[in-house]
Design goal:
The protein has 491 residues and is mostly helical. Among the domains are: 102 residues, no CATH class; 95 residues, no CATH class; 34 residues. Helix 14 packs across helix 15. The longest helix is centred in the middle third of the chain and has 42 residues. The radius of gyration is 43 Å and the shape is extended. The two termini are 46 Å apart. The relative contact order is 0.02.
């Protein structure tokens, strides 16, 4: 579950590390190419020294081969000739590989410095292929190195499963020996149920075979027999699986019944904890499976929703900017009418406030009326300023989207991303404030649940002490002796 939850972080870190290593490799290649271009004499001298060293090495090897050949006869000469041929072949292969590597590095440097887009893309693909091959080789080497650990873990797991199976068999045998009548009745019921199921299955197979034989011709008898044999084999496999599952379930239920009837308090508590754990594991598995199955749908819907909302916003902006650009006189007249309407509305509001204040407080309300009027005018001015800034921002974004440069578009996109992040943080804060009651309720419930669990554990421990008082007294006595003999810490 942790890996599934952190899958995005793992992928992001992997992508970042790949980019970092690729950038570091490019830097090393550029540094090497720059050194070769800045100091061609040094590069040529190193190449000449390498050629001279290889030539002298070949001469020494040939002299050694000739000197050893002179001291031997017969087959020794053939062996030395074979060794010489092998050494020459290895040297030629090494030279050829070094020459190819040098040519490839020079070609990569040329493409990185002065190559076209197609060559750079091809070079990038080749580098990615080499990285994948190297990664696979590293994986194979790790598996080869860890082969002993894998074999040891496999052997340990086999022994563990065998021991667990033996424990289950012993528990089932103990339950059968403790209650033979119950085991015999369940076995008898199981045999009757399997006999009835086999009988009904055989009748169903015979009925289908008769229907198929009546519908098909005599020529298709072989195919029908094969189909019936396959169906019969499948039914037998299903029956065997059902029998095995029923046997395992029966053993588990018998063990739980034994614990519930004759088990100690520790076994009952352990059985209850195991049941609760199985329920939680099953619920978490179902939730995880649903999320994994619907992961593509969730991602696709999120991407589509973002694109749809962005496209709808662009359409609204274009629809609002289009009439302004097509009919500037109409837009100016509407703006002028709106300003007149707001001025008239402010005037009416001020008169109404003055009338109410004079009717309620008399002549002493002029200061309060003036204060209320100033506050209303300030709020209105702030609203007008905000609307004007929003309008200018929308027009500027529309201009950048239509005729802006690349830098302006990138800056606008960065600003949009920042606004989205701010809006998302505000939405998260609102959700947390809205769900504050749920969080408090869950906290209260969790406290009650933990307290109830603690009381259950205390009751189980008390039951264990009551059922085994001698053991409890012995443990208490041992604890007292240990605390007495324990040395005091030095300050």
């Amino acid at each position: 579950m942790k890996r599934i939850c952190n899958q995005g972080i793992i992928r992001g870190f992997t992508a970042w590390s790949d980019q970092y290593f690729a950038a570091a490799r490019h830097k090393r290649m550029l540094a090497a190419a720059g050194a070769r271009l800045m100091r061609p004499a040094l590069s040529a001298s190193v190449s000449q020294w390498k050629t001279s060293w290889e030539f002298s090495r070949r001469q020494e090897l040939a002299a050694e081969v000739q000197r050893n050949a002179q001291g031997k006869l017969g087959t020794a000469e053939q062996e030395m000739m074979a060794m010489k041929a092998k050494a020459d072949a290895e040297l030629a292969y090494a030279k050829q590989a070094a020459q190819k590597e040098l040519e490839r590095e020079l070609e990569m440097q040329r493409v990185a410095l002065t190559g076209t887009t197609e060559e750079m893309i091809a070079l990038q693909k080749q580098q990615e292929k080499e990285q994948r091959v190297e990664h696979l080789a590293q994986k194979a080497m790790k598996r080869i190195c860890n082969q002993g650990i894998m074999r040891g873990f496999s052997a340990w797991s086999e022994q563990y499963f065998a021991a667990a199976r033996h424990k289950r068999m012993l528990a089932a045998a103990g339950a059968r020996l403790a209650r033979p009548a119950l085991a015999a009745s369940i076995q008898h019921w199981k045999g009757d149920w399997e006999a009835d199921r086999r009988t009904s299955l055989a009748l169903e197979v015979r009925r289908r075979e008769q229907n198929r034989a009546s519908k098909s011709a005599a020529a298709s008898g072989g195919a029908a027999e094969q189909a019936m044999a396959a169906y019969k084999a499948k039914a037998e496999a299903e029956l065997a699986y059902v029998k095995r599952a029923a046997a395992e379930h029966e053993e588990k239920e018998l063990e739980r019944l034994r614990v519930a009837l004759t088990g100690s308090a520790e076994e009952v508590a352990a059985m209850q904890l195991e049941k609760d754990k199985e329920k939680r594991v099953e619920q978490l598995g179902q939730k995880a499976m649903k999320r994994i199955c619907n992961q593509g749908v969730m991602r696709g819907f999120s991407a589509w929703q973002e694109q749809y909302l962005q496209h709808a916003r662009h359409q609204r902006m274009l629809a609002a900017a289009g009439p302004r650009l097509m009919r500037p006189a109409l837009s100016a007249s509407v703006s002028h009418w709106r300003n007149d309407w707001e001025a008239e509305r402010r005037k009416n509001l001020a008169q109404e406030i003055r009338r109410r204040a004079s009717a309620k407080y008399g002549g002493s309300a002029d200061a309060e009326v003036a204060e209320i009027r100033a506050t209303a005018e300030a709020d209105l001015a702030a609203q007008k300023k905000f609307a004007e800034e929003d309008k200018l921002r929308a027009l500027e974004r529309l201009r950048i989207e239509l005729t802006g440069s690349v830098e302006e578009i990138l800056a606008m996109q960065a600003e949009k991303d920042k606004e989205k992040r701010v809006e998302q943080l505000a939405q998260k804060a609102m959700k947390r404030l809205s769900n504050q009651g749920i969080m408090r309720g869950f906290t209260a419930w969790s406290e009650q649940y933990l307290q109830a669990a603690r009381q259950k554990r205390m009751l189980a421990a008390a039951g264990a002490r009551i059922m085994r008082p001698a053991l409890a007294m012995a443990v208490s006595h041992w604890k007292g002796d240990w605390e007495e003999e324990r040395p005091l810490p030095s300050h």
